[in-house]
Amino acid sequence: MPTGTLLQMSPRIGRVLAPNPSPFTYTGTQTYLVGTSDLAVIDPGPDDADHLDALLAAIGGRPVRAILCTHTHRDHSPAARPLSAQTGARVTGCAPLVLDDDGPRADAAFDPSYRPDRVLADGEQVRGEGWTLEALATPGHTSNHLCFALAEENALFTGDHVMGWSTSVISPPDGDMADYMRSMQRLLDRDDAIYYPAHGDPVENPRRLVRGMMGHRKQREGQIMRFLERNGASTIPDMVAEMYKGIDPRLHSAAGRSVLAHLIDLDGRGLAASAGDGLWRTA
Fold first, then answer.
1. Using CA atoms, how far apart are residues 212 and 201, in angstroms rounded to an integer?
2. Model-level pTM?
3. HEC profile for 44-63?
4. Are 68 and 148 in contact (CB under 8 A)?
5. Cα angle vertex 67, ends 61, 72, to 5°?
């Protein structure tokens, strides 16, 4: 998939791939341009000069009504402010959020430069000529995550909440498995025809994918409980070594974060508990 090239996904939707591939971003972050005569830009991506030039070329001098960010990981939002300076568009979308990142993802540290001109609450809309985007609060991957629904095409821009190549990393303290599952149920209850994720291909049977992803999380939860019942008090690395055999070793730390998110959720439901010294046990 070429970077820096505008690919037209539909009459209203174009996509430009940023040059930031990694084990966590797949081929890179996908920035979407919505509209024809005037535009919204969704997830402007990293603050990379080549990507900014590619976005400006794709915009082609058309008015940009809003620069929308699904969340503030630094592969999504840092280009918002320089793009705003070039186009005059307001930075709009998720709330700012900066935490000390103790997780394994260098690409996913929160963006301290993000200063939105307008924060969208759940259900609020941004409009242009022939397009309407509605914010949908989907906490879980991050507490400030939004998806954006395009009414005219029954499409949903899902950011990192649902990706086209992998499940989302849920990394505490901000990532929350219980919130994620509630947000997934919210998507399952909708009738969107297609998802446009920030990473990976469009999802053309979204409800089937969401059901599968929710089932995967429930299976992982069951694996954790069976591991603890079989082995007694155990560490997260012990669980990862057994439950994630065959995955890229560079992803083991991220897998550990997701296991921790499951354990915190299980603890909140009275099914597991910390045993101290990095050990977890059944409750």
1. 17
2. 0.93
3. CCCCCHHHHHHHHHHHCCCC
4. yes
5. 145
Q: Domain 214-282: give its CATH code.
A: 1.10.10.10
Residue showing tokens 């849920």: 170
Report how far Cα 118 is from the mean position of its chain's Cα atoms.
20
CB contact burial 218-229 (16+ within 10 A = b; e otherwise): eebbebbeebbe
pLDDT of 226-266, one tens digit each?
999 999 999 999 999 999 988 888 888 888 999 999 999 99
Q: What residue spans define the domains of the chain?
A: 7-204, 214-282
Cα 51 to Cα 36, 95, 159, 205, 223: the distances in Å are 20, 24, 18, 30, 41
Task: Give the pLDDT confidence of 163-191 residue by residue, as tens digits.
Answer: 998 889 899 989 999 999 999 999 999 99
Class of domain 7-204: alpha beta
The sign of the torsion formed by the CA atoms of 203, 135, 179, 32 equals positive
Do 176 and 2 meet the contact criterion of CB atoms below 8 Å apart? no
The C-alpha atoms of residue 200 and residue 27 are separated, in whole angstroms, by 7
15: left (phi over 0), alpha (psi -120 to 50) or beta: beta
Lowest mean pLDDT, pick from 22-31, 117-126, 210-219, 230-239: 22-31
Residue with tokens 């914010």: 135
pLDDT on residue 107: 43
